[in-house]
């Protein structure tokens, strides 16, 4: 008998091992399959659901096989157990009549329960209400914003540490209110409201799961919601069906429908919890363009880009760079034509009107300015992305020249490189990239509101999304607390009007504490002419609807003029080199190569004599480029720039080939990085040609394939396949 028990025990142990192995293999895979922030955890959730289903199948199979094994071995599992005596049938007619009546009564009660006419106890109502309310609140107010933050942390100034206290309160409040209200209802009202709450949660879940694949990017651009009419219609139909179906089923199977809704709520909470949990334990996405790392990024709890040193200058030497996002040379030419005196303060400057950029979009262009690195032929884009700061000496060379570095851009807030080496590289070279000293840098109320809005936007039907639309800058401005904070504990945010106000109130000052041995380098990234258009010509927020591209272009330069005039007032203008440029010129999301020029502004003033600084703005048509940026900066610092190329003031006004890297955009994702060659005037698109070199950024496949020659301007628009 002992050997038989051993065999049975071995079977039990083996079965448990198989179930555990299957569950492990099922749930481990998603860590290597993140594709997109909106769906990546749903892949894991689907697998979690499969795991639950498989567990059920295993359980049934296990019981049946075990029963047969027990029978085959002749094991009596009830041996030595106390059992009740056998029930004997009696012929007593009275007893039989009572039993028959009891059976009939039970049958009537059972039928009543199936139709839901029977009363539900308070304890059962509390349990059902709690589980359904938890599903609703957890899905919309916790899972949705958490996934958005973790999937888009490169653009959001919210860390994982500060995420939980902002997301949990709303979730708990919604849960508690719903659970209490539902528990207080009775009868038909309880049934209807319970199913409506469940249906709304389920519809929100399915909306994110099935119908959010082409959500527009929150970059501030105006959205033409009309082009999404098919998805809007499909979304409305889905919501109506999902809400109506449980109510209709409840008419016939009231009790069963309630139980099914409750059990499905529990299952979906578990599945979503698995998805969210995977974000906590999965390794940081160091491979930007790889299948493993694409779309996966994690908030950084260590370094933050702060305002420390933002308004400080040195009395020795200064190099100041303004990067006005998306500001194109053609925009500035038009603005100057309309406002001839808008650049009068730019004395001593040279305006290079034949300039080219480096890379587009911003997430690649700003790092290029700080590294000088571009993807190389034969390497994967993820290799370039992960190592651009690591293989560049530009920051170290500026430090070696005796300059303190202040870098102010939300683009470098999150740099995900293997084991954080990129952050170590940047943080060790700068004065303003460091952990915050307190948790007060986050505006709690603003963060709660921002997270709630993002969650509602993601899970709402398409017809309601325009009402909940937001842009990234609005979210960041709501999150950051900049009131009564020291500069070193204030996160830097892209707020041009706010920067202008702070500049006028704080004013520039000479502070050698934030200066290097020989001077200071300040890199200030502002929104410039990037959408949304909010600035008036005076650099302040314009009245609703009155701001335009032109007013914002003029207002952006107003901020730079204020900086210039303050340098003059404190006597530091002559010893300051100033570069005013853009990360890139005019650009738009496209899954094809660009079809017009993208020329960032380039205005440069070297540190020079007072007489030279008093001269009016000069215009040059020398073929300069962002590729000359690092050499220009190091020359201004008196450092060796030989390995970085030619400073802009040494570029001859003669034919010169330059290169520009642009990135296509496919279905909401970066597609291919394409290399352009410009062999003439950068403002003449006929001089732009694709070289044929390309790098896949996020494994996105455009519909144009490799047939790039059809987009070559030399071919002519009549032959382009549009």
Task: Please summarize what this structure is.
The protein is α/β, with parallel strands linked by helices and 722 residues long. It has 20 helices and 17 strands. Helix 5 (160-184) packs across helix 14 (444-459), helix 6 packs parallel to helix 8 (254-281) and helix 14 packs antiparallel against helix 16.
Structure characterization notes:
Helix content is 45%, strand content 11%. The protein is an alpha/beta fold. Among the domains are: 108-281, no CATH class; 317-434 and 488-654, Alkaline Phosphatase, subunit A. Strand 15 and strand 16 form a beta hairpin. The model is unreliable at 19-40, 283-301 and 699-722 (pLDDT under 50).
Strand elements, count: 17
Reading off the top of the CATH hierarchy, the class of the domain at 317-434 and 488-654 is best stated as: Alpha Beta
C-alpha Rg, in Å? 33 Å
**What structural class do you assign from the helix and strand content?**
alpha/beta
Could you report the average pLDDT, rounded to the nearest whole number? 80
Question: Keywords for this structure?
Answer:
single chain; 722 residues; alpha/beta; Alkaline Phosphatase, subunit A; seven-stranded mixed sheet; four-stranded mixed sheet; 20 helices; elongated
How is the topology of this model organized?
Layout (H helix, E strand, L loop, with lengths): L1 H27 L11 H34 L19 H23 L6 H30 L8 H25 L2 H24 L18 H24 L1 H28 L22 E2 L6 E2 L4 E7 L4 H10 L11 E3 L2 E2 L2 E2 L1 H10 L9 H7 L6 H7 L2 E6 L12 H7 L5 E2 L9 H16 L5 H4 L3 H8 L16 H11 L2 E2 L8 E8 L22 H21 L6 E6 L20 E4 L4 H4 L4 E3 L3 E2 L3 H8 L21 E9 L2 E10 L9 E9 L26
Parallel strand pairs: 2-9, 3-10, 3-11, 4-13, 5-14, 6-15, 7-10
Antiparallel strand pairs: 1-8, 4-12, 11-12, 15-16, 16-17
Helix pairs in contact: 1-2, 2-8, 4-5, 4-6, 4-8, 4-14, 5-14, 6-7, 6-8, 7-8, 9-18, 14-16, 17-18
